[in-house]
Amino acid sequence: MGICDSTMGLRNTLIVMALLLSVSTVPFSGAASLKSHAFFNETGELPCHFPNTQNLSLDELVIFWQDQNKLVLYELFKGQEKPNNVHPKYIGRTSFDQDSWTLRLHNVQIKDTGSYQCFIHHRRSQGLVSIHQMSSDLIVLANFSQPEIRLIANQTEKSNIINLTCSSTQGYPEPQKMYVRLNTKNSTSNYDAVMKKSQNNITELYNVSISVSFPIPPETNVTIFCVLQLEPTEIILSPPYNIDAKSPVPSPPVPDHILWIAALLVVFIVCGTVFVILRKRKTKQPGPSNECEIIKVEGKESEQTEKRVELQKPGRSDEVQCDVNISKTTSDNKSATDF
Fold it and tell me: What is the pTM of this model?
């Protein structure tokens, strides 16, 4: 009985191997390959789309999938799974959905990207007959982390130049580019830089980063984004980095001793000006007592002075009084002379 089972198992294996050899040389007769997408470490689907118009049971069929390198992912022989024919890299990673005729590949890796084929054979009395085959392309993606902005300390803090780095990790495929977007109230500017990239040898995921320096206007609020462009119309933005406008620098206060000096100078100038004005006015307007003394001296020296004084018309009461005194003085002088 054991010999019989071993012989049957060997026979089934040889049948499957013969099928693999035969399908590898037969071109696909179906339509163009279907494309399916799966994310890293998640589950991808490899459809077969068997119409089963004859309503055949699984016991009458031999179903298997193979990759582009002819390695078997899954085999169902007369309704029974056959892991012995499955390549070690796929063992424990597949499950078959009988309702949709789809093979699910779990824990998808970047290396799983490629083409896969599904084959269905009908077991008849004359042997196995190929009744359906289909090809599908699996595309594995990995979402990059949200870009992160990190400021680099400025060499000159008084300048308006900002230095920063932008990075994103664990993504696939390689992005197109990475740049910085600067938004102000009235404008938007983009600053490109050379994108540095590194790829993990095992996971094949990418890490990318850029370093960039650019001026920022100090008089307005600024919002900075790091932009990772995956496709022409697909981007990932970093959280906004906001920089507030700088306050105007106040003028330095004037020292107290300068204020005191300025005040003293003003007082000195004002006092000097007043003194000069008063002195000029006093010089231009002589008083009446001085005029009287001058006239008295002149009256004593000559009679001509007397006549000139008498002819003058006094304009003030003080001048009248001076004339009276002059007359008295003259008469006294004449009396003394006659005597």
Answer: 0.64
